[in-house]
Amino acid sequence: MVQVRSYYEILGIDTESTVVDIKKAYKEKLLCTHPDKNRAVEAQNVSIEEIKEAYQVLVSPSGKEKYDRELADSYKKQGFYNGGEGLEDYSLDEFSYDPESSEFHMDCPRCQMAQGFEFTESLLEEHCIERKEGGFYVVVQCSACSLWLNVNFDVAEEYESS
Ligand SMILES: [Zn+2]
C-alpha cells in the first residue's frame, strides 16, 4: 500500500541528513520548540511513537541504509498510479527537460528535494491518462516525500501521426 509518510518526512529532514541532523531533528520534534512555524504545524500531525520509530531506524547507519533501499523500492513501485483525484495540478512546462536522457525533472515544491520529481518521456507516454476535456495527465510522486502531483500536458505532434 501507499506509504503515507516517510520517516524523513516525519522528522522533517531529507535523505542526505547526517546522524547529527537526525538527532537534532528528533529533539526538536519531541520538544516541539522549534520556532519555525511550518515545523510546528507538521509536528501536530505526527505522534510521538512515529517520531521515535523514525528516529530509531534512521539514527543507525545500517538501519538508515536498509530503510533507504526499501523506500527507493516502494517509490519505484508507486512511481505512477492512476487515482490522482484532487491533487495539485502542474503543467509539464514547469518541468525541465533533458533531451539527452529524455527525462523531465523538477525540484519538489514541498520538501525542496532537488529533482524530487523525475520521470522519462516513455513513462509519461505509458502512464498518461486522457482527460475528457482534452489533454492528458500523469500522476507522479516525489522521491523523497509523499507529495503527489498531477502533471498536465497536451499531446505533442510527433505522437499523433502513428
Ligand atoms: Zn518532496
UniProtKB/TrEMBL annotation:
CDD domains: DnaJ (cd06257)
Keywords, ordered alphabetically: Iron, Metal-binding
GO terms for biological process, alphabetical: protein histidyl modification to diphthamide
Record carries keyword Ubl conjugation: no
Domain J per the UniProt entry, residue ranges: 6-71
Organism superkingdom: Eukaryota
Record's function text: Required for the first step of diphthamide biosynthesis, the transfer of 3-amino-3-carboxypropyl from S-adenosyl-L-methionine to a histidine residue. Diphthamide is a post-translational modification of histidine which occurs in elongation factor 2.
Protein name from the UniProt record: Diphthamide biosynthesis protein 4
